[in-house]
Amino acid sequence: MKNVTRSVSVLLTALVATLGMGVLSPAANAAVNTCGSYVFGGDASGGISNGTLKAGFCIGSGSIRRINVLYEKTGGSTTNVRLGYQETDSSGVGISPPVYAAAQNVNSGQTAERAFSVTEPIGCYHGVMLNTLTGYQYVTRVWGSC
How many Cα neighbours within 13 Å face the side chain of 91? Predict the structure, then answer.
């Protein structure tokens, strides 16, 4: 019984660690418009030489309630990224610091996904991806009304 309990404990620890790192899925399953009970407000994307960065915005009760950020990696070697979002002005200049999720590795052919449960005012935002190996930040086009 002690070995079974230990095995279950190790399995649950591994599962929690995996969930904390983010979700990787085949690119075909990626959806920025997953909003649950909220209304899909629109999306923004940005092309990168080895994939596409996308962000989807879900609206509820006059606020942004969920932001989905996805990086569909189509080429290149494994990289480590942090997905997030940032409030911007109409030209895409950040007016608040980016909000990032924990870092995760992503391979060619995979999609890294993060969903942020938020209560943010309606405004202008873009999705962001920080490459932790190079320190370079990629962004989507601006979404919203400034």
Answer: 1
